[in-house]
Every structure is written in structure tokens, then in C-alpha cells.
Specification:
Blueprint lengths: L1 H26 L4 E16 L4 E15 L21 H29 L1 E4 L2 E2 L1 E2 L15 E6 L7 H12 L4 E7 L4 E7 L1 H6 L5 H4 L1 E2 L3 E8 L4 H5 L6 E5 L2 E2 L3 H9 L6 E7 L2 E7 L2 E4 L5 E4 L2 E5 L1 H6 L1 E4 L5 H26 L10 H14 L1 H20 L6 H14 L5 H30 L3
């Protein structure tokens, strides 16, 4: 099923991406020779009215081959159909069309998901890991519903976050009205120190979460302390040293405070208790403090998520706003993660390849059509962002080259382009091998 999911995912997104290039090439009267899904030897091909269509052996992408004098001799009567002889603005738009179609697909997918119904989280604080920078935060009790923030009533967790963001921009005190099974109560938070010391203030960043984590390992970073010690996904952590574990925040606090120290993990694996010694790596956090890291992520309490969720149906107009916000937020997340990787704050082991996509597509298929469409939208937008990076060989690199040609009135020399493309190819191959290497490590739990 993972293989089927991967082939379906890649086939759909490659066809969408390459069809963007194909359609704009035809629009600007560029002769298209071949439209291929996949690379390498052709498994299946047929001649269409205008070009050859084919399915190739390596399902890791695709291409649209256009008539181009740089790639071979072109007969004189066909020169005006060659890509290289088109105006730079047309070449730029042909290069842009692939990522643009991926973005359009993601937008349409989210639009119809909005019409179908979107799960929203109620403004319920399910778990708390309070920061000492906020005075009175410890007075908030788990499983409390936020009814008002400085007099404004949120109907979802996202809206509560938005109200909180706007409130703290002009206030150093935030009044939160809450209710739980026992009482209705009010807490006034002093956030002056928090605002001064936080780069990304928010309810979750402050330690208030709309979900609860189970101390069960959902993900292990390859080559991490956890992987090397022998911890595995789905291991339930029941004790660390002499401390019984009841929630995930206990796990993170113990690990963070124990860099380079041996920690005795008692876990439950397949209903059997095991003891594994893990030594956290030493790392420096944003404040310059030495902390411990082992490279594990927790499991969300799905039952609590379902209990605190509701379905919101958007209208024909409002669904456009939902789709636009979904695309913007996802793009922002992708770029933020890339920037954090470049800065070394997020491990490059998080870069995934075909096996990662296959496993994720399998999970999405089992969860239903809506989840799979959501997954396709996510991968499609990620593919667009990747292709728009200003790296020669990728569409983003081509766009910059044609933009320079358009602005200066003359093309960059063939020699310079070849040097740039060689550099770009090295970068792309390097990232590809990194993704495959990470897949290999995850596959064998290394």
C-alpha cells in the first residue's frame, strides 16, 4: 500500500507540475517533443497529435522536452518554434508555470476540503507546561476552556491564538476567562518579561496546549542518541531513572536537564518492559544554555483531539479565504524549517525522500479520501516551494536567469549558464542523496 500510495502521489503531482510547463509552452508556440512521467528508459510511449507521451522507469519526477537549439540542430523552418528563440518573459512564464500549477492544485484541494468540512480545535487548554516568564500562568488548570481573552470570545483555538497575538501587541497584562467541569474562573497574566524574552510569543509558545502528548515515541531522528541507544517508535516510556513518567513534559524536562548523563529508560515495548540506557547529546539552546537532546518526538492523544474538535463547513466564498490561509501558513512553515536547517537549529535528518513520502501516503490513504487529498496538497505546495528556490537546474534558477535576460536585454552566456547549472546540479544531487540516506536510516532504525 505504501508503494501504491507513493506511485499515485508522485504521478498526480508530476503530471500537474509538468502540465503547467507543457500548457504554457504550447500557449507560446514552443514545439514540445516529449511529455514524460518519470525518468530513464521509456516503459510505455505513444504518439499524440503534437508530441510524444510516455511513462518512464524511474518514478521520481518527470520532464517536458522542448525544441531547443542548445540541445541539438534545429531545421531552419522550425527555429521560431525553439524555446531558446522565445522572448525572455515567455521563457520565464514557462519555467514559472510548473510551480504555479502545484500551488493552484493545493489551493483548489484546500478549497474543496473547506467546503467538505475542516476539523477545528475548540479553545480548550488540554495540557500545560508553564514558562516562568509569565506571572500567574500556573493558576490555569488543565482541561479548561477559554471563554474570553481581554473580553473577546474565541470559537476555536486558532482564533484564541489570533486574539492573544493582537492583545499582547498593546498590553502587558492579559485577562483570560476560563471554565472547567468544576468552576468558572479568571486569571490575569503578567506577560511583560515574556514579551521581552520571546521571539515568537503565543499561547502554545507560552506553554498552553490544545492537545495532550502521550509519553509514547512517535518519531526517532536518525543517528540521534535515542536511535543509537536502541529506542524504537511506539515505545511507551514509563520511567526514567527513579522518576515514574505520567506525561511527556516530564520526559523533556529530564532530558533537557541531563546533557551527557546516562539516563535509564524503562519502556513498554510490545507489552514487555525493557531497560535502555540513553545518553543525551549536549546542545545549546537559543538562550545559550547547555541542554540535553535525544532526538525523539511524542504521540498525540488522538482520543482527546477528537473530543476537543468540531467540524466547520466553509461557504463558497469563505472557503477561498480558508484555502489561501492554509497555503500561506504551509508555505511559511516550509520556509521556516528550511531556514532553521540552514542555521543548524533543526537537523538535516528531517529531510525525507521517497520512503518517507511512501509511508506518509500509506497513512493518509488508510485515513480516507479527505486525508489523502490534504496530503497531496501538502506535498504539492512543498514541491512548488522547493522548485522555486533560486538554485540553477530548478525552476527558480531558470526564472532568475530569464529575469536577468529580460531586464538587461541580453542572455547570460552559455558558458556561464553551464557553470551555474553544474553548481545547481551538485546542490540538488547532494540534497537528493541526503534524503535517500535519511530514508535508509529511518528504514533500518539507525
Amino acid at each position: 500500500m505504501a508503494l501504491i500510495g507513493f506511485l499515485i502521489t508522485i504521478s498526480i503531482l508530476v503530471v500537474i507540475h509538468e502540465f503547467g510547463h507543457y500548457l504554457f509552452a504550447r500557449l507560446f508556440k514552443v514545439k514540445v517533443i516529449t511529455f514524460s512521467v518519470g525518468f530513464g528508459p521509456k516503459l510505455l510511449s505513444w504518439k499524440g497529435r503534437h508530441n510524444q507521451w510516455c511513462i518512464s522507469a524511474i518514478p521520481l519526477g518527470g520532464y517536458v522536452q522542448m525544441l531547443d537549439e542548445r540541445e541539438g540542430n534545429v531545421e531552419p523552418h522550425l527555429k521560431h518554434f525553439a524555446f531558446n528563440n522565445k522572448p525572455p518573459i515567455q521563457k520565464l512564464l514557462i519555467a514559472l508555470a510548473g510551480p504555479l500549477f502545484n500551488i493552484l492544485f493545493a489551493f483548489l484541494a484546500y478549497y474543496f476540503i473547506g467546503l467538505y468540512g475542516v476539523y477545528n480545535l475548540k479553545p480548550v487548554i488540554s495540557s500545560i507546561s508553564p514558562t516562568p516568564l509569565v506571572k500567574n500562568l500556573e493558576l490555569i488548570k488543565p482541561n479548561s476552556t477559554i471563554t474570553k481573552i481581554n473580553g473577546q470570545s474565541p470559537d476555536s483555538w486558532n482564533q484564541a491564538e489570533n486574539i492573544f497575538d493582537k492583545t499582547i501587541s498593546t498590553n502587558n497584562n492579559v485577562i483570560i476567562d476560563l471554565t472547567n467541569a468544576v468552576q468558572a474562573y479568571q486569571v490575569t497574566l503578567d506577560i511583560r518579561k515574556y514579551k521581552e524574552n520571546s521571539d515568537n510569543p503565543g499561547l502554545a509558545n507560552m506553554g498552553l496546549y490544545p492537545f495532550s502528548y502521550i509519553p509514547q515515541i512517535a518519531y526517532i531522528e536518525p543517528q540521534s542518541a535515542a536511535a543509537k541507544a536502541g529506542l524504537k517508535e511506539n515505545d511507551l516510556i514509563i520511567q526514567i531513572n527513579s522518576t515514574p513518567i505520567n506525561n511527556w513534559f516530564q520526559v523533556t524536562n529530564i532530558i533537557r536537564s541531563s546533557p551527557s548523563e546516562n539516563l535509564k529508560f524503562i519502556i513498554n515495548r510490545n507489552n514487555k518492559k525493557q531497560e535502555i540506557v540513553v545518553t543525551p547529546y549536549s546542545s545549546t539552546d537559543d538562550d545559550g544554555q547547555i541542554i540535553g537532546k535525544v532526538g525523539i518526538m511524542p504521540t498525540l492523544d488522538k482520543n482527546l483531539i477528537e473530543q476537543n474538535s468540531y467540524i466547520k463547513h466553509y461557504g463558497f466564498i469563505s472557503s477561498m479565504g480558508y484555502a489561501a490561509n492554509a497555503c500561506f501558513n504551509l508555505a511559511q512553515t516550509n520556509l521556516s524549517m528550511l531556514w532553521l536547517m540552514i542555521k543548524g537549529k533543526v537537523s538535516w535528518h528531517n529531510v525525507g525522500g521517497p520512503i518517507t513520502i511512501a509511508k506518509a501516503s500509506q497513512t493518509a490513504i488508510y485515513q480516507g479520501v479527505k486525508s489523502f487529498v490534504d496530503f497531496l496538497a501538502l506535498i504539492s505546495l512543498s514541491l512548488a516551494i522547493m522548485n522555486l528556490l533560486p538554485i540553477p537546474v530548478l525552476d527558480g534558477g531558470h526564472i532568475i536567469i530569464y529575469a536577468i535576460e529580460w531586464l538587461t536585454g541580453k542572455p547570460i552566456s552559455i558558458g556561464t549558464q553551464q557553470i551555474l547549472f553544474k553548481f545547481g546540479l551538485i546542490v540538488v544531487l547532494g540534497v537528493t542523496f541526503l534524503a535517500l540516506y535519511n530514508d535508509f536510516l529511518k528504514l533500518f532504525n539507525l
